[in-house]
Write a structure and sequence with these properties.
Layout lengths: L5 E5 L5 H16 L5 H7 L8 H6 L2 E6 L2 E9 L25 E8 L8 H15 L4 E7 L3 H6 L3 E2 L3 E4 L5 E10 L9
Parallel strand pairs: 4-5
Antiparallel strand pairs: 1-2, 2-3, 3-4, 5-8, 6-8, 7-8
């Protein structure tokens, strides 16, 4: 059930400072059970973060609840699967919706609003937008705290990876994918 008063809108470049703050709060608050503080800090320097290309493409969204930023997520028609502006190896090449999967990117929910339907609403918005652009497959790089949400929405996991961090550590992610129609909303 989606909380009353939730609104989802396209993010703008003016939202970047608030999104950066939300990402750090979410990573520390929701990631603490699965990652060490040092892993989270390392991930915040590249693997996690705002990718302003998504904002410029009009494919990044923020969820607000009672005027407070409650979550953010984007989808992409570009090759980069994850990582913010600090990650130098991003690939801006466009995807072909006939053969490629849209990328679900930079998904974070404020810990105070977790498990209240906000993540599901944001994911549904991204999938709908990607479908409107011809995509029928979706893929993402899940953090360990996000795996359950994605699995509940029909995403299938691949082999976990250990991504190198700038502080010499690694962080575990799970690549996940979904074919359109892989999950159907339960009927009441």
């Amino acid at each position: 059930m989606i909380p009353e008063g939730l609104s989802i809108r396209c993010a703008t470049l003016a939202d970047v400072p608030a999104i950066e703050s939300l990402i750090a709060t979410s990573a520390h608050g929701l990631g603490a059970r699965d990652y060490t503080r040092a892993q989270i800090e390392g991930a915040l320097r590249g693997a996690f973060g705002v990718d302003t290309q998504l904002l410029k493409d009009g494919s990044y969204f923020v969820a607000q609840l009672s005027g407070e930023l409650a979550g953010c997520v984007g989808w992409s028609f570009r090759r980069t699967l994850f990582g913010g502006d600090a990650r130098a190896d991003r690939d801006p090449q466009r995807l072909d919706p006939r053969t490629d999967a849209a990328k679900i990117r930079a998904f974070f929910v404020h810990p105070a609003h977790a498990r209240r339907g906000i993540g599901a609403a944001l994911l549904e918005r991204c999938e709908a937008e990607a479908r409107a652009h011809g995509f029928r497959r979706f893929e993402l790089m899940a953090t360990l705290p996000g795996v359950r949400l994605y699995a509940a929405r029909g995403y299938l996991p691949g082999e976990p990876i250990h991504w190198p961090l700038p502080n010499g550590l690694t962080i575990e992610f799970v690549p996940m994918s979904k074919e359109d129609g892989g999950w159907q909303k339960p009927t009441p």
